[in-house]
Amino acid sequence: MANEYFKFKRFTVHQDKCAMKVGTDGTLLGAWAQAPQEPSRILDIGTGTGLIALMMAQRYPNASIVGIDIDPAAVAQARDNVTASPFADRISIYEADICHFYENDTFDSVICNPPFFTGDLICPDKQRAVARHTISLSYHDLISSAYKHLSANGRFSVIIPIESQSNFESEALMGGFYLSRLCRVKTTLVKKPKRCLIELRKLPVSESVNTCEVIEINPGIRSDWYKELTYDFYIR
User: What is the pLDDT of residue 137?
Assistant: First the structure.
């Protein structure tokens, strides 16, 4: 059973009401995604516990962050986590579907740790199924929504399973995006990449950055890359 809360250096994430708990994927994305300027407006789609919104607020002290989720329980929990954090005055959490979400202005950074199962058996737990499966948000809908809400010079960042990379990149290209950064992530040196961090932009880039990194060099021994990436967040 997952812990009811996860303590970071500057904030604590309670997660007992959320289907999806704090995990490596969300932490990776929250530490890797970029906002192109300060002050920035940042949109966290499917905020869940509010983890990524909190991480971006810590990394960008002058940014204002909006987190949205369709799950009322997750929204309530994210609001509680934000209220208890040092960043409460810069983060707003709303119950909303990104496909019908309306904002007067665009965002400099749009971030999403999207539902990632496309062909697996659907979990009988409705809350968990919505959080985990693309029945709630297809890549096509996510990409078109992100494009609509992203500023001209903004960045759209996601983390997806490596087996979905080709499909996601094709949808992104058809949706008007250009690939600017790509990082394939291995859990250990001997394993194949499991996840893929992707950054997209509306404007063409001269050359995209393509890397492959590893989380652990040996069991329980984090790589220098992962330690540096998450240094400001993990207590140990």
Answer: 87
What pLDDT was estimated at residue 130? 44
pTM of the predicted model as reported, rounded to 2 decimal places: 0.90
Give the count of beta carbons closer than 10 Å to the beta carbon of residue 3. 12
Residue 217 has pLDDT above 50, yes or no: yes
β-strands 178-188, 195-201: how paired?
antiparallel
Q: At what angle do helices 165-174 and 139-149 cross, to 10 degrees?
A: 40
Contacts of 34 (CB under 8 A, 6+ apart): 109, 155, 157, 199
Q: State the pLDDT at residue 122.
A: 41
* pLDDT classification of 179: cutoffs 50, 70, 90: very high
Sign of the CA dihedral 14, 18, 19, 23? negative
Whether omega before 114 lies within 30 degrees of 0, making that bond cis, reads no
Q: What percent of the chain has pLDDT over 70?
A: 90
Residue 12's alpha-carbon distances to 29, 56, 61, 190, 236, in angstroms, are: 18, 14, 18, 33, 14
DSSP 21: P
Kindly give, in sequence order, each residue whose CB lies less than 8 Å from that of residue 24, ignoring residues fewer than 6 positions away: 215
Tokens 């050359």 belong to residue: 207
User: What residues contact 30, with CB distance under 8 A and at least 6 apart?
Assistant: 51, 52, 54, 55, 56, 111, 233
Query: What count of other Cβ atoms lies within 10 Å of the Cβ of residue 55?
Result: 28
